[in-house]
Amino acid sequence: MADNVAITAGSGTSVATDEIQVSGTGTLGHVQYVKLVDGTLNGTGAIGGDATNGLDVDVTRVPTDPFGANADAASATGSISAKLRYVAATGIPVTAVTPGTGTAALGKQEGEAHVAGNTGVLLLGVRNTSHSAFTGVVQGDYAPINVDAEGCVVVVGNVAHDAPDADPPMKLGHRAVNLGATPTAVAAADRTDWLATRAGVPFVLGGHPNIQSSEYFTSGAITDDNILPAIAAGSAYVITGIMVTCSNANVTSPSVRIGFGTSTLTAQGATNADGVAKIILSHPGIAPGSGVVKGNGAGIIGIGASDEELRITCSTPTTSLIVQVDWFSIAI
């Protein structure tokens, strides 16, 4: 069939039209409906499209840079086409965010030296003064940085009290005070500073928060008697200082052995015996008016086992022998 179709008004082939009123004339006219097909000779392939989005457009053969290089082609954002691709992929205008790792870019390369005036991103944290766990966060998940009420990053120990120890320790600082200063007391269970001299040497108080001091007196010979109150099973005595003094009125020099035992002391060893256990103070004969001292209360000189008493065996002092002990007890 030859190209072209003759159209005769009132007869022949019907043509789809839209009857409209010609603007300004009051007369009616017809607008013909037209479908588009490809432009090849004898081609009948329809060009796609719909009422919502209009004609389909093929962008697969658009040049890499259809607009040509522009003035900022050497910048992190690249050419105009690069900017268009960035906006299409992220929805963020290139005027609001500069991608890449340059001076004005938000990103920075690992190991890159800091330069004054570089652009960066404000890092925000989540206030978490109660130190509550974030719901749903498990090993390997992203989680927000925690801050306190002043916006300071919260740093806490990574191992709880009474949990198995792990990881290297943290280095601690101190607050310097003048020698002779009296620090202000805080309430029990409150946090407090660790104090040091202005040269950084820490003040350390030896002993125990509940150190006890006890006295024992005898005027006669003693065998395996307990010096301190009875200790309960599951607890033990820790001795930090012990002193034995004899009256100047004594006419003998009593021997003394003090140590731990549930009922008796370890027997005196034979000559040159090695490693006689559980004896913390021993003297073959304390002269009248003199004594013997071990420890100063600032360090441990002996620890008993569960249910072991601190006991004494001594010969007759004639007048008096006094034992003074600094101690505390612990669960064991």
3D structure, described in words:
- With 332 residues, the chain is mainly beta.
- The chain contains one helix and 17 strands.
- The chain has one helix at 80-90; strands at 17-21, 28-32, 49-50, 54-55, 126-127, 146-147, 175-176, 195-196, 212-218, 222-226, 235-246, 256-261, 279-283, 291-294, 302-303, 309-314, 321-331.
- Strands 9, 11, 14, 15 and 17 form a five-stranded antiparallel β-sheet that branches. The protein has a four-stranded antiparallel β-sheet with strand order 10-16-12-13, with no helix packed on it. A two-stranded antiparallel sheet has the order 1-2.
- The relative contact order is 0.11.
- Residues 69-76 have low confidence and may be disordered.
Briefly say what this structure is.
With 332 residues, the chain is mainly β. Helices cover 3% and strands 24% of the residues.
Series of secondary-structure elements, N-terminal to C-terminal: EEEEHEEEEEEEEEEEEE
Structural class: mainly beta
Calculate the mean pLDDT score and round it: 84
* Strands, total number: 17
Helix proportion: under 10%
The proportion of strand residues reads 15-25%
Distance between the termini: 111 Å
- The low-confidence runs, each spanning 5 or more residues with pLDDT under 50, are 69-76
SSE order and pairing:
Elements: E1 17-21, E2 28-32, E3 49-50, E4 54-55, H1 80-90, E5 126-127, E6 146-147, E7 175-176, E8 195-196, E9 212-218, E10 222-226, E11 235-246, E12 256-261, E13 279-283, E14 291-294, E15 302-303, E16 309-314, E17 321-331
Parallel strand pairs: 5-6, 7-8
Antiparallel strand pairs: 1-2, 3-4, 9-17, 10-16, 11-14, 11-15, 11-17, 12-13, 12-16
